[in-house]
Amino acid sequence: MHEMPFVFNFPFFSIILTLVGGMSMPFFRNGKVAQKINMGVIIATGVLNFILLCYLVSTGESFTYMMGHWPAPWGNEIRGGPFEALMATMFCIVMGFSVYVFIEINTLAACAIVMAKRGGETIVATIRYLIMSLLGSGLFLMGIALLYNITGHLLMESLHETIMEMAATGQYVIPLTVVFSVTTLGLCVKSALYPFHSWLPNAHGSATTSSSAILSGLVLKGYIILYIKMMFRVYSPELLAQLHITDALLVLGVLAMIMGSLKALRERHIKRMTAYSSVAQIGYIFMGLGLNSEIGVLAACFHILSHGVTKPMLFLSAGGLANVSHHSYEFKDLKGAAHRNKLAGVAFVVGSLSMIGIPLFAGFPSKLFFSTAAIHSDYFRLPVVLIALAVSTALNALYYLPVCINIWRTKDEPHGHGHGGHEDEHGGHDAHVAHGEEAAHGDEVHEVSHHEPAGDVAVAAFENSHHEETPKISFGFGLSMVAFIACNFALGIGYGPIMNILRQGIDLL
Amino acid sequence: MDFFLNHFYEIASMILFGVGFMGLLLHNNLIKKAVGLNIMDTAIYLFLAQRGFITGRVAPIMGSNLEASVEEYVNPIPAGLVLTGIVVSVSVTAFFLALIQMLHKKYHTLNLDEILLKAKQEKEKKKALEESEDA
Questions:
Q1: Which DSSP category does A317 fall into?
Q2: A142 vs B44: CB contact, 8 Å cut-off?
Q3: Which residues of chain A lie closer than 8 angstroms to B17, CB-CB?
Q4: Where are the domains of chain B?
Q5: Is the residue at A102 inside a domain?
Q6: Residue A60: exposed, middle, or buried by beta-carbon count in 10 A (0-12, 13-18, 19+)?
Q7: What are phi and psi of A357, to 5 degrees?
Q8: Residue B44 pLDDT > 50
Q9: Number of domains present in the structure of chain A
Q10: Are A281 and A307 in contact, with CB atoms under 8 Å apart?
Q11: Would an 8 Å CB–CB cutoff place B39 in contact with chain A?
Q12: Which of A120, A130, A131 minimises the CB distance to B107?
């Protein structure tokens, strides 16, 4: 390990950088300085991980980094591969932009209003989140303790070896089943899989815009990535299938896809609706894992990425729309909001179309891969997954498109004053006409907004002078939205290379 | 019977884990939830600490006996895990209690159901107020 390439140090640098950055935050009295340092740390980590990703993809290897040059049983190890590097890079990008928007929105003084308005509710939501999260970690920790008890190891490599040995000789079948179920259950609770999702919409409904974006896009995914790593590196997919854990995941995933969408359909609050949509999307990911084939896992990983760039965009644009509608997230107040903040409106439409799975958007390839995975699976799973995909897609369209139409509706239109049910019925019908138009429109604005920074200030000043209630679209918000839309198209069109990286990463896990 | 006597700690920690878990999940009183959390965590630590120790061996610290072999020591990792866990659960408990205190100041009760009810009523009242203002 003496002639180790320098890039292998990067994961360690990232950890130390974020650790030091986080710990130094309370010492800055001036919030702006702290925010700048925070952005700096995120950008630096993102760049480091991107370089590492490029290096690992070009050489096609994974590595094990020993902390302090202590080998495995004594020292701690960091393991890096294309899969880990790709996820880290994506997380940094999303995190960076979400935080960037937060800074801007914060300076627009929305945050204080939101906090003051919803004090009690926020605390209740936090407590519920805390309790569920603690239950999840308790179960997971118990699983780890039992696993240590059976195998005598805590490192993934040695755990895997011992478990495979035990599975081969048929020892400890019941304890292993218990351990697998308990850790799986713990991580499912933490990642808000369907029956354990109750805390999620409440946490989102009362959180600030950026915290929703990060919570939905990244925090939940962290646990899923941990689960994928455990699936491959500690257990093995075959063993999980043998113990019927993957079947349980498939059933829960399918339930989540349908129940999450149905609950979203009933919501009249844009953030809670998007949160229920997250429940459904988490269901997609677990369904992919439950298919128990390589392509199913790949589809799940791709969905983590595509949902990770789409959902923060939806939350941020919803926040942007609410900012120009008296800080209200109710559908009736958001009517025509897109005309007051065009960029947020376009971003919301792009996000919705991506969630529904229209070609060219990030959601399409992941649905394509899920269907492919379903076709490759056995005769029992095939119809279940395909039907669930079809139903869930239709439901997605049913709850996203009415919102899109609602936010682009002009105020003086005579019909539809607060008639929620009425809009729903027409949603499916209008959909076909609307989405073609709006996709084209989205492209157009997307092109234009590249030149925006120069014209931005002038436009904003113009708007400000005309309507008092319209806050300007800030540079940060504009940049983030354009970046998220660009990421969405990049994933939707250029999914080939990303799939290759993911495949390489999963093979090396 | 021997089984129960030999595995006294494991059985105790499993029972405690169950008690704590159900307490955290089902109790309506927030303070009792916090207590349940601590019982659950402590059960895991008891389990780890017990399984991590082998009678007759000592902690892996190099003392006067420099010739000692690995066989005389216990693995320090479970103990390290327990210590880390204690730190985490202390900070989580502190955060939990701070939130409970804030809720108690606002709603003057510790019952989660009552708090949810009051929050809902408050919301409805606010909505009614807004609507009357609109009108």
A1: H
A2: yes
A3: 138, 142
A4: 2-134
A5: yes
A6: exposed
A7: 100, 40
A8: yes
A9: 1
A10: yes
A11: no
A12: A120
The answer to whether residue A324 sits within a structural domain is no
Give B81→chain A minimum CA distance, Å. Answer: 9
Q: How far is CA A95 from the centre of its chain?
A: 11
What local confidence, expressed as pLDDT, does residue A463 receive?
44
Residues 6+ apart with CB under 8 A from B56: none
Please report residues of A whose CB lies closer than 8 A to that of B123.
Answer: 121
DSSP per-residue string spanning A372-422? HHHHHS-TTHHHHHHHHHHHHHHHHHHHHHHHHHHHHS-TT-SS-SS-HHH
Q: Do B119 and A154 touch (CB under 8 A)?
A: no
Please tell me which of the candidates A119, A124, A139 has its beta carbon nearest to residue B116. A124
Distance, CA of A329 to CA of A318 (rounded, Å)? 8
B48 touches chain A (CB under 8 A): yes
Residue A232: the pLDDT is: 81
pLDDT value for A229: 80
**The Cα angle at residue A80 between residues A37 and A17, in degrees rounded to 5:** 15
| Rounded Cα distance, B98 and B109, in Å | 14
Domain for residue A302, yes or no? no
**Chain A contacts of B40, Cβ < 8 Å?**
138
Counting residues of chain B whose pLDDT is more than 90, the rounded percentage is 7
- Separation in Å, CA of A156 to nearest CA in chain B: 14
ipTM: 0.85
Interchain CB distance below 8 Å, A149 and B47: yes
Q: Which residue has the higher pLDDT, A424 or B104?
A: B104
Residues in chain B: 135
Q: Do A154 and B81 touch (CB under 8 A)?
A: yes
CA dist list (Å): B1 to A475, B6, B14, B15, B47: 73, 9, 18, 17, 20
Residues of chain A with pLDDT under 70: 1-4, 29-31, 60-62, 64-120, 206, 327, 411-474
The CATH number that domain B2-134 falls under is: 1.10.287.3510
For residue A126, give the chain B residue with the closest CA: B99
